[in-house]
Design the sequence.
C-alpha cells in the first residue's frame, strides 16, 4: 500500500484541509468577498470525504485546524473546527457509514449538531450568568455598529432566536456544500456512492422524542435557549419540506426560482409552513419506508 503523499486519499485529505483553512483565513484577513468564501470552507472537506472516504475527511480537519492555529490563532481554529470542519467530517461519516445509505441520519445531524453546540455553550457560560446576556450583548453591539437604536422589544425578540438563526445558517451551509460536492464528484465519476433520494429521508423515532422534549422544555422553562433548541431540532423537518417543494417544482425553473426568492424575502412566514410540510412528509406519505429506530 502506498504511503504519505503517494496515497491519493492522503493527498486529497491534506489538500482539502489546506484549501478549507485558506477559505477561512481569507475572511479573517479582511480580503474581498471573504465573508462569502468563509461559508465554502466545508466544501473541500466534504469533497475529499465523499470522493475518497471517511479518513481523508478527518485528515482534512486535522490539517486545516493546524494551519489555522499556526497562521491565525487558537480562537480562529475553534471557529474553524466547531462551525465548519467537524460537522462536515461528521456528515461524511454518517453518509458513508456501513449498513445502508440514506439521508435520515445525515439529515438528523443538521439539527443535532447545532443543538449540541448550543447546549455546550450554555453550559460553558452557565457560571458567568448564562448565554442569553452574551447574545443580547452581541445584538446590541451589532445594532450600534449599524447606527441604529433598536427598541427593547426588538432586541429581546432577536436575542431569543439568535442562536437558532446561526444554527439555521450552519445547517443550510452544510447541506448546500454537500450537494455541490456530491454533484461535482458524481459528474466526474469520483463519488464513492450515488446521491440518495431526499424523498426517502425520514427522521428516526428517537429524534422525534428529542423534539417533543424540547417542545416541553420551551413551554415549561421558556427562555432563549429552550426556544432556540426547539427551532434547531426542527431544522431537518424544514429541510424535508423544502426538498418536497423542490421535488414538486422539478423542471419548472421559473416557479422554483420564485419559491427561493419568496423564501429569502418571507422566511419568517414560510419557515413554519416548510416545517409543517416536512412533518407531513414524515408521517402522512406512505410511499417511503418508516423511520429508523
Sequence:
Amino acid at each position: 500500500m502506498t504511503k504519505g503523499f503517494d496515497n491519493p486519499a492522503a493527498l486529497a485529505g491534506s489538500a482539502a484541509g489546506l484549501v478549507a483553512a485558506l477559505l477561512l483565513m481569507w475572511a479573517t484577513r479582511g480580503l474581498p468577498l471573504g465573508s462569502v468564501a468563509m461559508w465554502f470552507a466545508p466544501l473541500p472537506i466534504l469533497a475529499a470525504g465523499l470522493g475518497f472516504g471517511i479518513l481523508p475527511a478527518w485528515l482534512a480537519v486535522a490539517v486545516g485546524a493546524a494551519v489555522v492555529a499556526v497562521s491565525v490563532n487558537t480562537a480562529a481554529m475553534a471557529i474553524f473546527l466547531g462551525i465548519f470542519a467537524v460537522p462536515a467530517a461528521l456528515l461524511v461519516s454518517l453518509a458513508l457509514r456501513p449498513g445502508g445509505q440514506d439521508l435520515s441520519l445525515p439529515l438528523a445531524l443538521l439539527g443535532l449538531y447545532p443543538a449540541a453546540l448550543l447546549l455546550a455553550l450554555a453550559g460553558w457560560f452557565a457560571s458567568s450568568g448564562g448565554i442569553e446576556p452574551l447574545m443580547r450583548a452581541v445584538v446590541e453591539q451589532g445594532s450600534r455598529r449599524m447606527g441604529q437604536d433598536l427598541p427593547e422589544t426588538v432586541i429581546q425578540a432577536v436575542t431569543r432566536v439568535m442562536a437558532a438563526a446561526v444554527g439555521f445558517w450552519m445547517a443550510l451551509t452544510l447541506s448546500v456544500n454537500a450537494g455541490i460536492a456530491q454533484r461535482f464528484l458524481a459528474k466526474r465519476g469520483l463519488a464513492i456512492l450515488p446521491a440518495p433520494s431526499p424523498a426517502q429521508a425520514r427522521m428516526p423515532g428517537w429524534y422525534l422524542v428529542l423534539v417533543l422534549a424540547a417542545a416541553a422544555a420551551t413551554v415549561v422553562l421558556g427562555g432563549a435557549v429552550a426556544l432556540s433548541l426547539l427551532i434547531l431540532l426542527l431544522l431537518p423537518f424544514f429541510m424535508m419540506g423544502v426538498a418536497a417543494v423542490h421535488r414538486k417544482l422539478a423542471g419548472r425553473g421559473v416557479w422554483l426560482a420564485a419559491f427561493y426568492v419568496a423564501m429569502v424575502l418571507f422566511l419568517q412566514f414560510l419557515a413554519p409552513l416548510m416545517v409543517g410540510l416536512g412533518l407531513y412528509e414524515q408521517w402522512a406519505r406512505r410511499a417511503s419506508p418508516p423511520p429508523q429506530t
In short: The radius of gyration is 20 Å.
